[in-house]
Design a protein that fits this description.
The complex is a heterodimer. Chain A is mostly helical. Helices cover about 85% and strands about 0% of the residues of chain A. Classes of the chains: A mainly alpha, B mainly alpha. Chains A and B meet through helix 1 and helix 3 of A and helix 1, helix 2 and helix 3 of B.
Chain lengths: ~90, ~140
């Protein structure tokens, strides 16, 4: 009776342990993927910030060179996404 | 009348056990006590092993539940990140590349702007983001 109990316990333990390993493996894969995506998101954010600064300076430059305004107007969509106006604000 | 042939004795049949010496009689209860003690020890050992197994199984169950909760939370984060990176990759990065190319052309044509433009370095991330965003594995249930 006790031996049967021990054997059943050992079998259940083994099954649970394998399930634990499976879940652990999936969790580790998810973690690796989250790290990759975080890296990609950080690079994207950095690029957006650089582009925002560049666009802001270009907007400022377009005051001196009005011909640049046409170029900026062609990218109104992007400038809106970067939270910038397509034309330089009047002073 | 018996007609069976008489079977020969096996060649290595052990000789009949010798009668126990007169001094062995008191050893029998001691032997039985030893056996009982050993049987008791085995029972206790098995109980201890059972308790250990049950404890391990329960703790593993607990750990699995915690891991599944963590994995689900991680999956939500991954989906949000993948959405953001995907949006960047499909909508913003191409526009940014076009804008950057136009600005490069402007910098080639305008020396004043070239000085300003030289201060900025934008990495083309569309391909990198694509390679970094595989489809997420299904979280454990």
């Amino acid at each position: 009776m006790l031996l049967a109990l021990v054997l059943i316990g050992a079998a259940a333990n083994l099954l649970v342990f394998f399930r634990y390993l499976q879940v652990l493996n999936t969790a580790q894969r998810l973690q690796v993927q989250a790290q990759r995506l975080q890296f990609a998101a950080a690079l994207a954010t950095r690029n957006l910030n650089v582009m925002r600064s560049l666009a802001a300076e270009t907007l400022e430059f377009s005051r001196k060179a009005p011909a640049v305004s046409g170029l900026l107007l062609a990218h109104t969509n992007l400038l809106q996404r970067l939270e910038l106006p397509a034309t330089p604000p009047a002073r | 009348m018996d007609t069976f042939p008489a079977s020969p004795l096996p060649p290595s049949s052990p000789p009949p056990a010798p009668a126990p010496p007169s001094g062995a009689a008191p050893a029998e209860p001691a032997l039985e006590r030893d056996l009982q003690r050993q049987a008791y020890l085995v029972r206790v050992l098995m109980l201890v092993v059972t308790v250990l197994l049950v404890t391990t199984t329960l703790s593993l169950f607990h750990q699995i539940r915690w891991l599944v909760a963590q994995a689900n939370q991680l999956n939500v984060t991954i989906q949000e990140l993948a959405r953001g990176v995907g949006d960047y990759e499909t909508n913003i990065a191409p526009q940014m590349n076009r804008f950057y190319t136009d600005l490069q052309r402007l910098a080639q044509a305008n020396a004043d702007y070239a000085r300003l433009f030289a201060r900025y370095q934008v990495t083309n991330l569309a391909a990198a983001a694509r390679s970094n965003a595989p489809t997420p594995p299904a979280p454990p249930r």
